[in-house]
Amino acid sequence: MNALEIEDLVMHFGPVRAVDGVSLQIRKGTVVALVGESGSGKSTVGRCIVRLLEPTGGTVRLADADITHLNRRQLRKHRRDVSIVFQDPAGSLDPRLSVGDIVSEPLRLMRQRDTAGPVADSLRRVGLRPEVAHRSPHELSGGQRQRVSIARALISKPSLLVADEPTSALDVSVQASVLNLLADLQRDLGFACLFITHDLSAVEYLADEVAVMYLGQLVEQGPRERIFGVPAHPYTQALLSAAPVPDPTTQRARVPVLLGDDLPSPIDPPDGCRFHTRCPVAVDRCRTVVPESRVIGEGGHRVACHLVNDDGTGPDVRRTQDTTDTGAAR
Ligand code: SF4
After folding, report:
1. Would you kindly state where each structural domain of the chain is located, as residue ranges?
2. Nearest residue to 41 via CA among 198, 189, 191
3. Is 286 in the pocket of ligand 1 (CB under 6 A)?
């Protein structure tokens, strides 16, 4: 059974088409990474799922409940099931409250009276001593504050956690420990997770499946091994070519694909394939005809690109640029 199903999700802010027809499922107990550049709309998808935003169109189903348009009172029943961890722990923790009050907030919203025991358990689970409950968030380090955010998110035992760039505001030295913590908690507690990130090395370590977002739409999605092993969409290939790899020899041999122009504006996205203004292999059809998302391989591997064949073969922009554009890439 799926922990989450979103179908044709649309979120417009006036003329800004931040999310434009995203469909995605997360199976119980699995991690789906949502990747893409900043401005691609991935955080907006996360905020629609936890209903910090009410979608303009489409549906959001949590387990078997449609929560797309529930009001605040109706949502309370589902608050236990879905939580979010934000990018910036300093901005997401109220400095006027104690850590204990922050972590217990989801339980108090559900009118639970006895919170001291669960708060102590939740703090221990994220590697903090229960005494931290009496302190204020500004007395803690960035890494400790993000652990407090995770403790708050998990205290209600949600079936789905949305982790929105959970480590990108932290010092590099503590990023790995927070990622390890999330991976351990996910394995031990078994919640499903939407992991929103631009850091592809973290994705390879954490995710079961990957969905790649470009300018408000998904361009490719599928099992992690397929997205990393046989990426089909030119945008996915470009992202992977720019991601650091642990092996220094492989890293030195890498030629990142240059996409040239910046991400176009979501107010007036390009016609046809939205990626055509930056795609190194675009053809005429790409400028006028929207490519449909099709299954091209096992595990529901899907792609939206005119040039990818039904068996997943097609262009590889990494090879194209290796041989034709190495001067520019240097
Ligand atoms: Fe590039 Fe065309 Fe494929 Fe879009 S549809 S990714 S522009 S080749």
Report:
1. 2-207, 231-320
2. 198
3. yes
Digit-coded pLDDT (tens) for 101-132? 999 999 998 888 899 999 999 999 999 999 99
pLDDT interval class at 327 (50, 70, 90): very low
Centre of ligand 1 to C-alpha 214, Å, is 12
Give the position, in ligand 1's atom list, of the atom nearest the Cα of 233. Answer: 6
- Nearest-angstrom CA–CA distance, 54 and 52: 7
Name the CATH topology of 2-207.
Rossmann fold (3.40.50)
Please tell me the pTM assigned to this model. Answer: 0.92
- Count CB atoms within 10 A of the CB of residue 141: 12
Residue 251's pLDDT band (cuts 50, 70, 90): low
Residue pair 305/221 in contact (Cβ under 8 Å)? The answer is no
Nearest CA to ligand 1 atom 8: 282
Angle at the Cα of 33 from the Cα atoms of 308 and 90, rounded to 5 degrees: 140
Task: Judge if the beta carbon of residue 238 lies within 6 A of ligand 1.
Answer: no
Q: Is 314 in the pocket of ligand 1 (CB under 6 A)?
A: no
**Mean pLDDT score across all residues of the chain:** 91
Does ligand 1 lie within 6 Å of residue 304's CB atom?
Answer: no
d(CA 270, CA 282): 13
